[in-house]
Amino acid sequence: MTVRSFGGLSVLVASVLSASLAIAQAPQAPTPVYTGNLGGGFALTGGNTDTTNFNLTAGITRDPKTKHVTKGTASYLRGEQNSLLNLDRTAANVRHEYTISGRTFAFGQLDYLRDRFKQITFLWVPAGGIGYKLVNTDSTKFIVDGGVGGIFEKNPGTTTSKSGSIIAGQRFEHKLSPASTISESLSSVWKTKDFADSLTNFSIGVTTTLVRNIQLKVEFIDSYKNKPANPALKKNDTAFVTAFIVKF
From CA 209, how far away is CA 53, in angstroms rounded? Predict the structure, then answer.
Protein backbone atom coordinates (compact mmCIF):
# COMPACT_ATOMS: atom_id res chain seq x y z
CA MET A 1 0.00 0.00 0.00
CA THR A 2 1.40 3.41 -0.96
CA VAL A 3 1.74 6.27 1.46
CA ARG A 4 -0.94 8.17 -0.44
CA SER A 5 -3.38 5.25 -0.27
CA PHE A 6 -2.68 4.71 3.42
CA GLY A 7 -3.25 8.41 4.08
CA GLY A 8 -6.59 8.34 2.22
CA LEU A 9 -7.71 5.25 4.13
CA SER A 10 -6.78 6.92 7.41
CA VAL A 11 -8.86 9.97 6.56
CA LEU A 12 -11.85 7.74 5.64
CA VAL A 13 -11.63 5.74 8.89
CA ALA A 14 -11.31 8.92 10.92
CA SER A 15 -14.39 10.41 9.20
CA VAL A 16 -16.48 7.30 9.88
CA LEU A 17 -15.41 7.22 13.55
CA SER A 18 -16.17 10.93 13.95
CA ALA A 19 -19.62 10.54 12.40
CA SER A 20 -20.40 7.51 14.60
CA LEU A 21 -19.28 9.39 17.71
CA ALA A 22 -21.42 12.39 16.75
CA ILE A 23 -24.48 10.17 16.28
CA ALA A 24 -23.89 8.42 19.60
CA GLN A 25 -23.57 11.75 21.39
CA ALA A 26 -26.59 13.33 19.68
CA PRO A 27 -29.28 14.13 22.25
CA GLN A 28 -32.40 11.98 22.12
CA ALA A 29 -35.70 13.57 21.18
CA PRO A 30 -37.46 14.82 24.33
CA THR A 31 -40.40 12.77 25.58
CA PRO A 32 -43.61 14.65 24.71
CA VAL A 33 -45.55 16.05 27.65
CA TYR A 34 -48.89 15.42 25.93
CA THR A 35 -49.91 12.13 24.30
CA GLY A 36 -53.30 11.01 23.14
CA ASN A 37 -55.43 9.00 20.78
CA LEU A 38 -58.56 9.20 18.63
CA GLY A 39 -60.54 6.17 17.55
CA GLY A 40 -63.69 5.06 15.86
CA GLY A 41 -65.44 2.04 14.46
CA PHE A 42 -68.48 1.30 12.31
CA ALA A 43 -70.48 -1.86 11.61
CA LEU A 44 -73.35 -2.31 9.14
CA THR A 45 -75.31 -5.52 8.49
CA GLY A 46 -78.30 -6.26 6.29
CA GLY A 47 -80.70 -9.07 5.47
CA ASN A 48 -83.18 -10.46 7.95
CA THR A 49 -81.89 -7.93 10.50
CA ASP A 50 -80.53 -4.50 9.64
CA THR A 51 -78.10 -3.15 12.22
CA THR A 52 -75.95 -0.07 12.35
CA ASN A 53 -73.41 0.55 15.09
CA PHE A 54 -70.62 3.03 15.54
CA ASN A 55 -68.36 4.20 18.32
CA LEU A 56 -66.04 7.11 18.99
CA THR A 57 -63.26 7.25 21.58
CA ALA A 58 -60.68 9.80 22.62
CA GLY A 59 -57.99 10.07 25.25
CA ILE A 60 -55.29 12.50 26.31
CA THR A 61 -52.54 12.33 28.92
CA ARG A 62 -50.35 15.08 30.32
CA ASP A 63 -47.21 13.61 31.88
CA PRO A 64 -44.34 16.06 32.45
CA LYS A 65 -42.36 13.23 34.10
CA THR A 66 -42.87 14.66 37.56
CA LYS A 67 -45.13 13.42 40.35
CA HIS A 68 -48.21 14.78 38.55
CA VAL A 69 -50.10 13.01 35.74
CA THR A 70 -53.43 14.16 34.27
CA LYS A 71 -55.59 11.95 32.06
CA GLY A 72 -58.86 12.38 30.20
CA THR A 73 -60.96 9.84 28.30
CA ALA A 74 -64.31 9.96 26.50
CA SER A 75 -66.43 7.50 24.54
CA TYR A 76 -69.69 7.46 22.61
CA LEU A 77 -71.61 4.33 21.56
CA ARG A 78 -74.66 4.32 19.31
CA GLY A 79 -76.56 1.47 17.67
CA GLU A 80 -79.73 0.83 15.68
CA GLN A 81 -81.57 -2.37 14.81
CA ASN A 82 -84.18 -2.32 12.04
CA SER A 83 -84.05 1.49 12.16
CA LEU A 84 -84.83 1.52 15.89
CA LEU A 85 -82.28 3.04 18.25
CA ASN A 86 -81.13 0.45 20.81
CA LEU A 87 -77.88 1.94 22.13
CA ASP A 88 -77.03 5.54 23.03
CA ARG A 89 -74.35 6.02 25.68
CA THR A 90 -71.79 8.72 26.46
CA ALA A 91 -69.09 8.44 29.12
CA ALA A 92 -66.16 10.62 30.16
CA ASN A 93 -63.52 10.71 32.87
CA VAL A 94 -60.97 13.30 33.97
CA ARG A 95 -58.38 12.15 36.51
CA HIS A 96 -55.31 13.67 38.17
CA GLU A 97 -52.78 11.49 39.96
CA TYR A 98 -50.02 12.58 42.35
CA THR A 99 -47.27 10.16 43.32
CA ILE A 100 -46.86 10.19 47.10
CA SER A 101 -43.93 7.79 47.24
CA GLY A 102 -42.86 4.71 45.34
CA ARG A 103 -45.97 2.92 44.08
CA THR A 104 -48.48 4.86 46.19
CA PHE A 105 -50.46 7.75 44.67
CA ALA A 106 -53.36 10.03 45.47
CA PHE A 107 -55.98 10.91 42.88
CA GLY A 108 -58.92 13.15 42.19
CA GLN A 109 -61.34 12.47 39.37
CA LEU A 110 -64.67 13.36 37.80
CA ASP A 111 -66.82 10.78 36.01
CA TYR A 112 -69.76 11.52 33.71
CA LEU A 113 -72.31 9.11 32.24
CA ARG A 114 -75.38 9.53 30.03
CA ASP A 115 -77.21 6.37 29.05
CA ARG A 116 -80.56 6.71 27.31
CA PHE A 117 -81.56 3.05 27.69
CA LYS A 118 -80.67 2.94 31.38
CA GLN A 119 -82.75 6.11 31.69
CA ILE A 120 -79.79 8.07 33.04
CA THR A 121 -80.10 11.66 31.88
CA PHE A 122 -76.79 12.37 33.61
CA LEU A 123 -74.70 10.93 36.39
CA TRP A 124 -71.77 12.89 37.84
CA VAL A 125 -69.32 11.35 40.31
CA PRO A 126 -66.63 13.67 41.71
CA ALA A 127 -64.29 11.67 43.98
CA GLY A 128 -60.79 11.36 45.38
CA GLY A 129 -58.75 8.68 47.08
CA ILE A 130 -55.60 6.58 47.26
CA GLY A 131 -54.18 4.00 44.86
CA TYR A 132 -51.34 1.50 44.81
CA LYS A 133 -49.40 -0.06 41.93
CA LEU A 134 -49.17 -3.73 42.86
CA VAL A 135 -47.17 -4.44 39.70
CA ASN A 136 -45.43 -1.66 37.79
CA THR A 137 -43.04 -2.91 35.11
CA ASP A 138 -42.58 -2.00 31.45
CA SER A 139 -44.55 -5.10 30.38
CA THR A 140 -47.14 -5.45 33.16
CA LYS A 141 -49.14 -3.02 35.28
CA PHE A 142 -51.71 -3.90 37.94
CA ILE A 143 -53.22 -1.00 39.89
CA VAL A 144 -55.89 -0.83 42.59
CA ASP A 145 -57.52 2.26 44.08
CA GLY A 146 -60.42 3.42 46.22
CA GLY A 147 -61.92 6.60 47.57
CA VAL A 148 -64.94 8.66 48.50
CA GLY A 149 -66.87 11.49 46.93
CA GLY A 150 -70.34 12.52 45.83
CA ILE A 151 -72.84 11.41 43.21
CA PHE A 152 -75.50 13.37 41.33
CA GLU A 153 -77.99 11.45 39.22
CA LYS A 154 -80.86 12.69 37.05
CA ASN A 155 -83.47 10.34 35.57
CA PRO A 156 -86.33 11.28 33.21
CA GLY A 157 -89.28 12.81 35.05
CA THR A 158 -87.47 13.11 38.40
CA THR A 159 -85.40 15.69 40.24
CA THR A 160 -81.66 15.26 40.65
CA SER A 161 -80.77 12.86 43.47
CA LYS A 162 -77.69 13.60 45.59
CA SER A 163 -75.65 11.31 47.80
CA GLY A 164 -72.19 10.57 49.06
CA SER A 165 -70.31 7.84 47.22
CA ILE A 166 -67.70 5.17 47.75
CA ILE A 167 -65.62 4.10 44.75
CA ALA A 168 -63.22 1.23 44.11
CA GLY A 169 -61.45 -0.05 41.04
CA GLN A 170 -58.58 -1.94 39.48
CA ARG A 171 -56.72 -1.82 36.18
CA PHE A 172 -54.54 -4.44 34.52
CA GLU A 173 -52.37 -4.15 31.42
CA HIS A 174 -49.91 -6.64 29.94
CA LYS A 175 -47.88 -6.56 26.74
CA LEU A 176 -48.38 -9.83 24.88
CA SER A 177 -45.74 -8.78 22.36
CA PRO A 178 -44.09 -5.53 21.24
CA ALA A 179 -47.16 -4.89 19.06
CA SER A 180 -50.04 -6.29 21.16
CA THR A 181 -51.42 -5.44 24.60
CA ILE A 182 -54.26 -6.88 26.66
CA SER A 183 -56.03 -4.57 29.10
CA GLU A 184 -58.79 -5.01 31.68
CA SER A 185 -60.52 -2.69 34.12
CA LEU A 186 -63.22 -2.91 36.76
CA SER A 187 -64.74 0.01 38.68
CA SER A 188 -67.73 0.39 41.00
CA VAL A 189 -69.50 3.24 42.74
CA TRP A 190 -71.96 2.89 45.63
CA LYS A 191 -74.36 5.51 46.97
CA THR A 192 -73.93 6.03 50.71
CA LYS A 193 -77.68 6.72 51.05
CA ASP A 194 -78.44 3.30 49.57
CA PHE A 195 -75.54 0.85 49.17
CA ALA A 196 -77.76 -1.41 47.07
CA ASP A 197 -77.82 1.35 44.43
CA SER A 198 -74.50 0.76 42.68
CA LEU A 199 -73.00 1.01 39.22
CA THR A 200 -70.23 -1.29 38.01
CA ASN A 201 -68.31 -1.00 34.74
CA PHE A 202 -66.10 -3.77 33.35
CA SER A 203 -64.04 -3.91 30.19
CA ILE A 204 -61.48 -6.21 28.63
CA GLY A 205 -59.79 -5.82 25.29
CA VAL A 206 -56.79 -6.42 23.05
CA THR A 207 -54.96 -3.70 21.14
CA THR A 208 -52.66 -4.46 18.19
CA THR A 209 -50.43 -2.05 16.31
CA LEU A 210 -51.09 -2.25 12.57
CA VAL A 211 -48.59 0.32 11.34
CA ARG A 212 -46.67 3.00 13.22
CA ASN A 213 -49.26 4.97 15.22
CA ILE A 214 -52.37 3.16 13.94
CA GLN A 215 -53.88 0.45 16.13
CA LEU A 216 -56.82 -1.95 16.07
CA LYS A 217 -58.69 -2.47 19.35
CA VAL A 218 -61.28 -5.15 20.11
CA GLU A 219 -63.07 -4.65 23.43
CA PHE A 220 -65.92 -6.11 25.46
CA ILE A 221 -67.77 -3.66 27.74
CA ASP A 222 -70.24 -4.52 30.50
CA SER A 223 -72.25 -1.96 32.49
CA TYR A 224 -74.29 -3.17 35.47
CA LYS A 225 -76.74 -0.92 37.42
CA ASN A 226 -78.02 -2.77 40.47
CA LYS A 227 -81.12 -0.54 40.88
CA PRO A 228 -82.20 0.86 37.49
CA ALA A 229 -84.35 4.00 37.43
CA ASN A 230 -87.19 1.80 36.12
CA PRO A 231 -87.59 -1.68 37.67
CA ALA A 232 -88.66 -2.96 34.25
CA LEU A 233 -85.20 -2.19 32.83
CA LYS A 234 -82.52 -4.84 32.60
CA LYS A 235 -79.66 -4.32 35.03
CA ASN A 236 -76.98 -5.43 32.59
CA ASP A 237 -75.90 -3.84 29.28
CA THR A 238 -73.05 -5.20 27.19
CA ALA A 239 -71.29 -4.05 24.04
CA PHE A 240 -68.67 -5.59 21.77
CA VAL A 241 -66.61 -2.81 20.20
CA THR A 242 -64.06 -2.81 17.39
CA ALA A 243 -62.22 0.42 16.63
CA PHE A 244 -59.28 1.80 14.73
CA ILE A 245 -57.17 4.12 16.88
CA VAL A 246 -54.69 6.79 15.85
CA LYS A 247 -52.09 7.71 18.49
CA PHE A 248 -50.45 11.11 18.66
Answer: 23
195 located within any domain: yes
For residue 239, the tally of other CB atoms under 10 A from its CB is 17
User: In this structure, is residue 14 part of a structural domain?
Assistant: no
**Is residue 49 in some structural domain?**
yes
Put residue 67 in one of left, alpha, beta given phi > 0 → left and psi -120 to 50 → alpha: alpha
Distance CA 25, CA 223 (A): 52
φ, ψ of residue 21 in degrees (nearest 5): -65, -40
Contact 124, 155 (CB under 8 A): no
**Tens digits of per-residue pLDDT, 73-131?**
999 999 888 888 888 999 999 999 999 998 999 999 999 999 999 999 999 999 999 99
Hey, which bits of 102-213 come out as E strands? 104-115, 120-136, 140-154, 161-175, 180-191, 194-211
Q: What are phi and psi of 166, to 5 degrees?
A: -120, 130
pTM: 0.85
Which residues constitute the domain of residue 67? 30-247
Compute CA distances 153 → 72, 80, 81, 150, whole Å: 21, 26, 28, 10
- Provide the number of structural domains found in the chain: 1
CA–CA gap between residue 91 and residue 75 (Å, rounded)? 5
Q: Is residue 2 part of a domain?
A: no
* Residue of 225, 247, 211, 233 whose CA lies nearest to 32: 247
